[in-house]
Amino acid sequence: MRRPREVAARTTCRMRAREWSPVVAVLLAMWIGADGASAAAHAGGEGPARADFTQAFARTFDISANGLDARDPAVVVTPDTILFVAWGRDPGFVAPGDTVPQRTAYTCSADGALSFYPPSWLEAPGVQPAVAYTPAGSLLLANVAQDSIRCSRSLDAGRSFLPAVTQVQGIPSPEFPSLAVDVQGLISLGWDVNSTTVYYSKSVTEGVTFTPPLAISANEGAGFVQDRPKLAVDGQRTIYAAWNHWRSFGLQKKWVAFSRSTNLGVNFSVPKAISDTLRNAYDPTVIARGSGVVDIMWVYAGVVDSVVVYESTNQGSTFGRLAAVAVPGQGGGTLSGPSFVRAGDGTLHTVVESVLLITNKSYYCALPPGGAFFTSPVEFSSSPGGRSSPVVTLDLFGTPILVWSSNIARGQDIVFTRKLP
Fold it and tell me: Element (H or E) spanning 26, and its range?
């Protein structure tokens, strides 16, 4: 294995007024009122964030090493401490002599991310990977090509993948797969087709076979979008799905759609909007646990965009707001792709991507157990170029691991860091 290349020496992010440039100070004045209230006051009452301006991170490392425009990272930690990371290569990039522009790469670390195996490529074309680990020890990787959605299997925690690839659906323009596995090994896979319909399929054979795709949303025709589904499953094996649902004509409106299955994916409830339909809401992500407890996080667009998290304790029948936080950036719906994970003590560790002019920035914040306010968002990455698409997970010690795409001189690479205690 090789050691990841160090690309930054940021060990601590400290937000101090005397360190800000005049331009940033002006922007800050726009975000924070004269009475010291959070920028959320200008964004529809989100926040305020808790006044905690210091977050420490380990050094940032490049793990893809010339990842050929690496995008959309996915990460999972196996019970035997293997850290597995997969990513897609931008469809528009073709290496000299390469006739397969859409590819998924992967690597893993068996020593706590001190070193990684050299990245490998899946043989079958595809991008936008989703990953999951089953109780029986299979590591699954779903990705999408221009004409199908597929699932690949590894029996050695991601060091290699079996040559046989399962085609779940052969159809043009599948997008944004999401995987979830329950306590008994039922594998749930969701995706959308051409941003019009959300589909679901399941496997009880460790991903060797999948059921015929089931549409869990209706194609509403031109002008309506349904995409980017996220799946989760609780301890009672209830399956939850949340996705973007919006219309692009007339008074444009975006909301978060939600559905669930209480019969192991045989069918799903009629989708319902769980966000405020008077506001633009998008990019939901979901985690579930225990007896019907489900948390869903999404973005509300505003003068300053904000991240909000809602919780249900009755299998999604009703939701109540836990907290929200305004995130620096251009606002107007430029915040995107929140990712969060629940620690053993109940802390919700959160990352999200923002945009300021031509720069993509990634922020970290946390909601303490039982808390009503997030910690103040802290920037951990700033990069021109493509989306950073940050994701967060926990290692076996409960330490948050942050993985994202960053523009490093020659192009987009996959990098990671840890949040220090």
Answer: helix 22-31
Annotate 357-384 with DSSP letters as a single string. TTEEEEEEEEE-TT-SSPBPPEEEEEEE
DSSP for 183-224, please give it.
TT--EEEEEEETTTEEEEEEESSTTS--PPPEE-S----TTE
Instruction: For residue 106, give the nearest of 59, 140, 136, 80 by alpha carbon.
Output: 140
Residue 73, φ and ψ in degrees, nearest 5: -70, 150
Element (H or E) spanning 23, and its range? helix 22-31
pLDDT, mean of residues 121-127: 88
User: In the 8-state DSSP scheme, what is residue 39?
Assistant: G
Q: Identify the burial level of 6 via C-beta atoms within 10 angstroms of its C-beta, where 0-12 means exposed, 13-18 middle and 19 or more buried.
A: exposed
Residue 37: pLDDT over 90: no
Q: Which residue has the tokens 């720069």?
A: 359
Q: Which phi-psi region, left, alpha or beta, contains residue 40 (left: φ > 0; alpha: ψ -120 to 50)?
A: alpha
Please state the domain extents for the chain. Answer: 5-418
Whether this model's pTM surpasses 0.85: yes
Cα–Cα distance between 144 and 98 in angstroms, integer? 19
Structure tokens at 207: 């991903």
CATH architecture of 5-418: 6 Propeller (2.120)
By residue count, the chain amounts to: 421
Sign of CA dihedral 89, 91, 393, 391: positive
Strand order in the sheet with 253-261: 224-233, 239-247, 253-261, 272-273
Separation CA 270–CA 56 (nearest Å): 44
What is the mean pLDDT of the segment spanning 254-262? Answer: 98
User: What is the residue-wise DSSP string for 220-260?
Assistant: --TTEEEEEEEEEE-TT--EEEEEEEEE-SSS-EEEEEEEE
Reported as half-sphere exposure (CB side, CA atoms, 13 A), residue 140 has a value of 30
* pLDDT at residue 384 in the model: 80
